[in-house]
Amino acid sequence: MLEAYRQHVAERAALGVPPKPLDEKQVADVVALLKNPPKGEEAFLVDLLENRVPAGVDPAAYVKAAFLAAVTKGEASSPLVTKERAVYLLGTMLGGYNVEPLVALLGDAALGALAAEALKKTLLVFDSFHDVEELAKAG
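RE: above sequence
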């Protein structure tokens, strides 16, 4: 998968255009590799997760958000993505599939403050607005 994506990047660069974002299957492949990264590919894998997945409600964003949420809950792990980094990355997704995991983390003693900070930068909260509002009123 990594070599195929590198080839795609080179082909697009030759045309003078940026690479396409990762699709759902490619993100699933990246997630699998992040759990047990091949030596020498660590930085590339992190870059793919951070910068090549579309934000919002794209199917690829769903895979990314699900993985990051699982990391925050201890249900998945990667030597390259800490729980704190997972919260931060959820906060960079602008809205959509990242909102529910961030709202759920607001009550977490260790990660709640990071989740609150991430939600401050989230534009597309939709139905979760009322949940956040109630939590804010409750202190």
